[in-house]
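Ops channel
N.P.: pipeline sanity check, posting one input/output pair.
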């Protein structure tokens, strides 16, 4: 099974200018790996890449990570990618 995760962020540069960066990762789920775990790992990796690229690096909040995990679980139950 293949999964695909996209994360994007638009940064306000001031003076009515903005910069947008979006990254998409697609990969096969490894044997024995849960689909939700794969989604979560790739989402976090995509997000961190975008934040670093746009100089938005900040500490990951454990509550945010839990919310992401719950959202991905709900997404899986609905049968979406």
């Amino acid at each position: 099974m293949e999964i695909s995760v996209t994360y994007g962020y638009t940064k306000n540069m001031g003076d009515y200018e903005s910069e947008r960066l979006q990254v998409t990762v697609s990969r096969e789920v490894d044997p024995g790996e849960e689909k939700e775990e794969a989604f979560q790992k790739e989402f976090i990796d995509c997000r961190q890449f975008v934040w670093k690229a746009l100089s938005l690096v900040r500490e990951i909040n454990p509550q945010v990570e839990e919310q992401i995990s719950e959202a991905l679980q709900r997404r899986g139950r609905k049968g979406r990618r």
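N.P.: looks fine end to end. The CA atoms of residues 10 and 20 lie 4 Å apart.
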